[in-house]
Write a sequence for this structure.
């Protein structure tokens, strides 16, 4: 039995911040922000009052369907600030009615058949890391959440083709554990890695480990198997194809509205043994972003190519608050990456970057690595912006937003977003607000900027404060030409901006596809398109 | 005015094989195959009898619509062996009725409106290089072929993002001519490059110059604009996105059944100045394919990574008929490729490949290149398998087929295909038949093999002889697990096998999309899906 997840914090129940830890932290925050925070005690789920289930589970399905409070509460939200703030306050105004845990194709089919016939809505659920309200129950007469956690096996490894057939409900760490003994890895490490699943990654077009070239899970899907209310959809395993529009690309990103992904053949990697890393300091944000552009346009395809703006570079690596930090890393299972890091550093220096030769960290897989990586040596990727629940349980309001934009619009895009979001933050949080940016992924034609913001909220008003800033961020991004999401998905949260962004006829096409595959409209209504 | 294309040969009218050339060649072929070929004279299109147009062009559209014999004959077929054999014999049993050449959005809209209202079928036409009957008129009461040749401009170049806004009807060479002065190139060079268009490449998921990594046009499309009978479909310019299933990926490969692509923002390249090439000889086909697998799985991402089987290596590079030739090339606008070619050669040698250090050709953009490329120095990519019309106008039957398959199935796949296709070839052509293979593109999880075959046909029976072998090739490929096409498209030719290959529910979804965008079903009926 897996250790139980916290229903309100990011982590296991055993890792939840305690009241003692929170008291200390409340004092810190009170001092920092010149306020006085009185921590509400960690909630006890036994005190939660959930609306009784509105639907009766058929006898044949009771063996794998649950209706207890913990199951229903945990599966009624994702991991967004708003989700966890509500959960912390024991607010479950629209809980799912039943949580089904099918373990076989037959059980899964039985759930969809039941729900189709009774007009019960179905929310597919991986590990609940959605930050876009993708798994929150819709308004409906009855909702079943379909937890895929029993579809958790690696079924086959094809070492010659470097591919594996993997069930959709497997969590990131378990997947890596199964691939490791054969010397393989998927190397898909979203921030949510620990508590997210392969099926969720595919359904949401998750962004992964690689900062350049193959950035999304999309590129690693060789074929996919999905159950729709109309039956099975399964594509052929192919390394490449030009036969009509890609069936897989219609599934990837469908966010549970077309079917339930049960397994996929995934392209896997040999575990890297050669590595090279450099943390390069730039005098300004503009100089650093130019260097990153040159590196990605030279098609060196580094595995990591991150840039932290002066705010993040100070926070994460102790730089002086004006400097920008670029981290470039290469990795390979086959070949020394010494030459590639050299080429990247050369381009970075030409753009004004500073790193000593001796600081370039090179691991040729033969004993001691050389160098410390430069400024990156001091950098710990502490999952900046992943709020574990300590601060937000004390009134801090925090969120991130991410997008992608072509280079020709970039500096202006950044200026506009910072101005508009900065204004909203000041308005709502005064001087406690902070806004920063990094690039998580970079393309020859543009970056994928990732913004983090937080401010000290007014206890009890956190959600409305968040909503005001969120509106400003989402509108600014789409007004300025970006995508409403580069890898966090649309869910229910981003619908207003997504509806502005996608071609109207594409939405009509997607609705037509949905009517074909899900004629009763039971699957995840409200996500991506209206029922 | 552009020089006129040949209506039966691959090339311009001025480049057609003459009767004198054909007489000499007929003697050669007669000797080689121990037969006696009497050349039918080059046809005169004035002798063709075309069914009169079955539809009257509205007055408002007559300015850009043509109904003369040359226009209708030329636009009633693609460039496949069967197409050109029919044309050579002046067989146009189902000619298009009208050829429209709209030059503006308004003219294009007017054509679709007219055809929608009168139930006239529409076949979008780029440059007529389809080898899968993608532009042949369907059985219908009336057909308009929509020639996009007046949409031929590069509208905008964004040098910072390395992207260009390009109209769909531009031919390959004209596109490169427009990009060259700015130092750019699309570097999409299918065999059909000279007589194919950007819109055609996107509609058919064309395979391009790059043998690894970004192999299809798909990866270079930043956004696309398409006119459907319901109106415009236009996606936002984005370097990457995770907002729902990709709208572009539904357009890419839609082969004219959903709409008419009018323009796209394309990711372009700086023109390469650094190059490195090696032609490496292997003692066997198996050794060579293993080397190619190691190179692509090491993710060196060479621009070219081709392998010719012993038959092709003998024909193209004069090897001994047992040896296999691997050609690996790297290129860059920014960086010397010396180190990368070194790494690739090292992997190739470890797999049994032979090339002298001095033979590796390296061009560092600073004067004289070094080395001659090894065996590749003798290799001229004479577009093996592109039949220009000389031999096939004399009774030679020739075709190619291409696919992709995962490595775990590869050697067996090749054996099965060669056995089944070889049997069909022997049956039909006896000892005059030849079958060979190369890889045009290679992926970490499998190769894209490209087979070429020909045999001396019986004059007058060429089409039925072709059909017998084609059936064997297509069935063998799909039975053995491959895709019916890696980059030639489905068209009308590959429907039987495509229908077996794609998920049935995907076909239903695609039909639903088509009903949404093209409610009267006027666009390219019979391609990909049934009306």
């Amino acid at each position: 039995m897996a250790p139980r997840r916290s229903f309100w914090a990011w982590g296991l129940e055993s890792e939840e911040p305690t009241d003692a830890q929170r008291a200390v932290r409340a004092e810190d925050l009170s001092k920092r922000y010149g306020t006085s925070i009185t921590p509400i005690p960690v909630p006890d789920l036994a005190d939660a009052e959930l609306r009784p289930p509105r639907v009766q589970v058929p006898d044949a399905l009771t063996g794998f369907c649950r209706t207890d409070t913990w199951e229903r509460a945990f599966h009624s939200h994702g991991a967004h600030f708003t989700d966890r703030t509500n959960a912390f306050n024991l607010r479950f105004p629209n809980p799912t009615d039943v949580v089904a845990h099918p373990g076989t194709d037959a059980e899964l089919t039985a759930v969809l058949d039941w729900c189709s016939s009774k007009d019960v809505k179905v929310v597919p659920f991986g590990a609940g890391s959605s930050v876009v309200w993708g798994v929150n129950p819709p308004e409906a007469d009855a909702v079943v959440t379909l937890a895929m956690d029993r579809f958790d096996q690696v079924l086959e490894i094809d070492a010659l083709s470097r591919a594996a057939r993997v069930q959709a409900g497997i969590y990131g760490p378990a997947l890596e554990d199964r691939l490791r003994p054969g010397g393989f890895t998927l190397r898909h490490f979203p921030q949510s890695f620990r508590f997210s699943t392969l099926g969720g990654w595919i359904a949401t077009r998750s962004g992964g480990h690689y900062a350049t070239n193959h950035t999304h899970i999309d590129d690693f899907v060789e074929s996919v198997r999905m159950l729709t209310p109309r039956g099975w959809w399964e594509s052929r395993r192919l390394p490449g194809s030009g036969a009509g529009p890609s069936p897989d690309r219609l599934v990837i990103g469908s966010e549970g509205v077309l079917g339930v992904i049960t397994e996929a053949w995934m392209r896997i990697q040999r575990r890297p043994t050669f590595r090279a890393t450099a943390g390069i300091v730039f005098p300004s944000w503009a100089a650093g972003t130019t260097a990153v552009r040159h590196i990605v346009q030279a098609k060196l395809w580094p595995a990591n190519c991150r840039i932290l703006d002066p705010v993040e570079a100070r926070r994460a690596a102790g730089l002086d608050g004006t400097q920008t930090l670029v981290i470039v890393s290469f990795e390979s299972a086959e070949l020394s990456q010494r030459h590639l890091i050299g080429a990247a550093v050369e381009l970075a220096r030409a753009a004004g970057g500073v790193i000593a030769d001796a600081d370039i960290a090179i691991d040729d897989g033969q004993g001691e690595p050389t160098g410390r990586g430069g400024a990156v040596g001091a950098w710990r990727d502490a999952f900046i912006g992943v709020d574990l629940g300590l601060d937000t349980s004390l009134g801090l309001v925090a969120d991130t937003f991410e997008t992608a934009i072509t280079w020709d619009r970039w500096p202006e895009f950044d200026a506009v977003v910072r101005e508009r979001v900065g204004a909203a933050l000041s308005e709502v949080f005064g001087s406690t607000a902070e806004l920063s940016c990094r690039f998580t992924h970079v393309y020859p034609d543009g970056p994928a900027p990732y913004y983090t913001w937080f401010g000290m909220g007014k206890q009890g008003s956190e959600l409305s404060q968040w909503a005001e800033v969120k509106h400003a961020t989402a509108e600014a991004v789409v007004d300025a030409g970006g995508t409403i999401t580069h890898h966090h998905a649309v869910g229910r949260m981003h619908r207003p901006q997504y509806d502005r962004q996608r071609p109207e006829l594409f939405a009509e096409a997607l609705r037509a596809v949905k009517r074909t595959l899900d004629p009763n409209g039971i699957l995840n209504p409200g996500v991506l398109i209206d029922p």
